[in-house]
Write a structure and sequence with these properties.
This protein is of the alpha+beta class. It has a domain at 1-21 and 93-191: Ku70, Chain: A, Domain 2. It has 6 helices and 11 strands. It has helices spanning 76-87, 120-133, 187-200, 212-226, 243-261, 273-282, and strands spanning 5-11, 14-22, 47-48, 53-54, 62-67, 70-74, 91-98, 107-115, 135-143, 146-155, 158-164. It has a 7-stranded mixed beta barrel with strand order 1-2-8-11-10-9-7. It has a two-stranded antiparallel ribbon with strand order 3-4. A two-stranded antiparallel sheet has the order 5-6. Strand 3 (47-48) and strand 4 form a beta hairpin. The protein is extended, with a radius of gyration of 37 Å. 8% of the residues are buried.
């Protein structure tokens, strides 16, 4: 399993060197966009609207828009230094709480923790302490340039980090429109609804839930792949055109056009015999 972060988890005077691994993966089927005419993949370019040209990555800087069309430019060096200051800190568990005290709306993403070199004994100690007390740890940590609030808990036999939102990242529920106030419900309707819930109540088994749309889409893709519905893009043109060839083509075209448009030189008029006789008589 790929290691995406290495660090130290600490509680009290106990330090646990750990590695972090993504516990979940996004299995959405990514569909590409093709040009209908030639079946070539569509590209997206970074273009400056003022200069009217594509810009390279080394020409781009980061900035924060604090007002309409007003920006503060942030240097990469400043950001890296700030990131390093936070990343160098150990992940310290600051509180222990009960899991049921945290509403699921706060939870964001899950990561597995494994002990790094020499951390097995301390890892097992924290796992046993959490299991015996039924508590989870609250900690702060840096992940991908963002400080995260996190909980550390047990999943089966493994420590898990669950990143959770900060309170100001959860929108105020009072801002949700058209939520009805308490409405008096007919007793018969409520009893029927409760009965339906009771009939559908079961133990949670995650294996019984499948992504039916993804399965059907994969079947459709395989069906088209085995048939004659697949396409091959037209050979892509070179991104770096041969300027020499283009220049020669332009020069040759210009030369050909100039030849066609150039007026023919006037030929001297040949003198007729009558004109020659007149000239001889005058002399």
């Amino acid at each position: 399993m790929h290691t995406m972060w290495k660090g130290t988890i600490s509680f009290g005077l106990v330090n646990i060197p750990v590695k972090m691994h993504a516990a979940t993966e996004n299995k959405d089927i990514q569909l590409r966009q093709l040009h209908k005419e030639c079946q070539s993949p569509i590209k997206y370019q970074k273009v400056c609207p003022h200069c009217d040209r594509e810009v390279e990555n080394d020409e781009i800087v980061k900035a924060y828009e604090y007002a309409k069309n007003k920006y503060v430019v942030l240097d990469d060096e400043d950001l890296e230094e700030l990131k390093k200051e936070q990343a160098d800190r150990a992940v310290e568990i600051v509180d222990f709480v009960n899991l049921e005290e945290i509403d699921p709306i706060y939870f964001e993403k899950s990561y597995y923790l494994s002990p790094n070199d020499g951390g097995g004994k301390a890892y097992a100690l924290l796992r046993s302490a959490l299991k015996e007390t039924g508590k989870i740890g609250i900690a702060k940590m840096m992940i991908r340039s963002k400080e995260q609030l996190a909980v550390i808990r047990i999943y089966e036999n493994t420590l898990v980090v669950e990143t959770i939102h900060f309170p100001d990242e959860v929108r105020n529920v009072q801002d949700v429109p058209n939520v009805p106030e308490e409405v008096e419900t007919a007793e018969k309707e409520l009893d029927t609804a409760k009965m339906l819930i009771e009939q559908l109540t079961t133990e949670f088994d995650p294996e019984k839930y499948k992504d039916e749309y993804r399965t059907a889409l994969l079947d459709l893709i395989e069906e088209k792949k085995d048939g004659e519905d697949h396409v091959t893009p037209t050979k892509e043109k070179s991104e770096t055109p041969d300027n020499v060839t283009n220049l020669m083509d332009a020069l040759q075209a210009s030369l050909d056009r100039a030849k066609k448009e150039k007026p023919k030189p006037k030929q001297p008029k040949r003198k007729t015999k009558t004109a020659q006789k007149k000239k001889a008589a005058n002399t």
